[in-house]
Write a structure and sequence with these properties.
Structural class: little secondary structure
Helix content: under 10%
Distance between the termini: 36 Å
Strand content: under 5%
Oligomer: single chain
Number of helices: 0
Number of strands: 0
Low-confidence stretches: none
Radius of gyration: 19 Å
Shape: flat
Mean pLDDT: 78
Largest sheet: none
Length: 46
């Protein structure tokens, strides 16, 4: 049986002050390119 290896993501971008950015976000000027997700409608017994 082989070993399981995790996929390592690349380095995260730094904030303008040089500290690492903890998460990626959509900035207000790019907001229109990223519409909100459609609401998920569950089917009966789903």
């Amino acid at each position: 049986m082989g070993t399981i290896e995790a996929i390592k993501p690349g380095p995260k971008p730094n904030k303008p002050d040089g500290t690492p950015d903890e998460r990626r976000r959509v900035t207000p000027e790019k907001r229109e390119k990223h519409p909100d997700l459609k609401p998920h409608i569950h089917k009966p017994k789903d």
